[in-house]
């Protein structure tokens, strides 16, 4: 097993040569670094688009679907963000790679439902980009269950997780969640609301833990309550993490990643011990 990025993401070494990835970037330095790093790590030959025209031609020349795009905000011929708008309008999953960042810019980017954004302002930028790409390409192996009696909340969390390429199931109640878990033993993460009419989040967590340990399934509790002791109650019930609504997207994705990374590391260690 290898580790990627500064977060220490565990990487199996799988190659993704079949992935079609576009890099919309006019800097020779960064295109060279990105191309070399992705070929070295994942055996991916990226398509470089140095202008908005190149990007349009690259999309039009092939009927093969684009797996992922990495795009600067501004390109020659698209100095006002038209390239990013173009990719988003085509529903192409996109990671923004930019040296321009401030709060208003961040809010605009997140409103476009991009996969992620990476800042060019540090020496780890390309490694962080490689980690984000690897997560997107491998997140489909993770099955996540969302449990919430609010249809709006379920839809919001589901859309966020699907944006990151996770497989998602939803349950409107604790009872339904237990049925789904019984039928889908590949679920590795449950994100459950606290306040539900039939079985609240604490009781659901207890019932799950009666049969499934943290080495098989991670649980994140969520709530809109202002009661800060809810986190302690969730953890004591067998939860692994807790978040208060409203979420900050970056924190939410980080918490999800951390819990799934921990799960993979535990499972890897157990396999190594079984072989030994």
Concise overview:
The protein is an alpha/beta fold.
Which key phrases capture this entry?
single chain, alpha/beta, 5-stranded parallel β-sheet, 12 strands
Give helix and strand order, one letter per element, not per position: EEEHEHEHEHEHEHEHEHEHEH
Order of strands in the sheet with the most strands?
A: 4-3-5-6-7
- DSSP helix count? 10
The proportion of residues forming helix, as a percent range, comes to 40-55%
* Main sheet overview: 5 strands, parallel
Q: Indicate the structural class.
A: alpha/beta
Rg, rounded, reads 20 Å
Q: What spatial form do the alpha-carbon principal axes imply?
A: globular
Indicate the multimeric state.
single chain
Number of strands: 12
Low-confidence stretches: none
Distance between the termini: 16 Å
Relative strand content: 15-25%
Mean pLDDT: 93
Explain this structure.
- By secondary structure, the protein is α/β, with parallel strands linked by helices.
- Helices cover 45% and strands 19% of the residues.
- The protein has ten helices and twelve strands.
- Strands 4-3-5-6-7 form a five-stranded parallel beta sheet, sandwiched between helices. The protein has a five-stranded parallel beta sheet with strand order 9-8-10-11-12, with helices on both faces.
- α1 (28-42) crosses α5 and α7 runs parallel beside α8 (201-209).
- It is globular.
- The relative contact order is 0.10.
- The model has no long low-confidence stretch (mean pLDDT 93).
């Amino acid at each position: 097993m290898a580790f990627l990025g500064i977060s220490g993401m565990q990487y199996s070494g799988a190659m993704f040569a079949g992935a079609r990835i576009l890099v919309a970037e006019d800097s020779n330095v960064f295109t060279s670094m990105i191309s070399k790093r992705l070929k070295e790590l994942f055996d991916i030959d990226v398509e470089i688009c140095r202008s908005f025209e190149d990007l349009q031609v690259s999309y039009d020349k092939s009927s093969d679907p684009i797996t992922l795009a990495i795009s600067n905000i501004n390109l020659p011929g698209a100095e006002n963000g038209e390239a990013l708008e173009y990719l988003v309008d085509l529903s192409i999953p996109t990671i923004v790679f930019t040296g321009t960042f401030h709060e208003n810019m961040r809010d605009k980017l997140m409103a476009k439902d991009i996969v992620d954004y990476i800042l060019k302002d540090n020496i780890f930028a390309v490694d962080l980009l490689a980690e984000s790409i690897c997560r997107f390409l491998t997140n489909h192996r993770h099955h996540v269950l969302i449990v919430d009696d609010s249809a709006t909340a379920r839809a919001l969390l589901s859309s966020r997780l699907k944006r990151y390429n996770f497989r998602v199931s939803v349950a409107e109640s604790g009872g339904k969640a237990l049925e789904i878990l019984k039928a889908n033993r590949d679920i590795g993460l449950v994100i459950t609301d606290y306040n539900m009419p039939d079985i609240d989040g604490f009781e659901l967590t207890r019932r799950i833990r009666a049969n499934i340990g943290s080495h098989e399934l991670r649980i994140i509790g969520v709530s809109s309550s202002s009661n800060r002791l809810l986190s302690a109650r969730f953890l004591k019930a067998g939860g692994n993490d807790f978040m208060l609504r409203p979420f900050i997207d970056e924190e939410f994705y980080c918490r999800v990643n951390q819990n799934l990374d921990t799960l993979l590391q535990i499972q890897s260690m157990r396999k190594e011990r079984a072989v030994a």
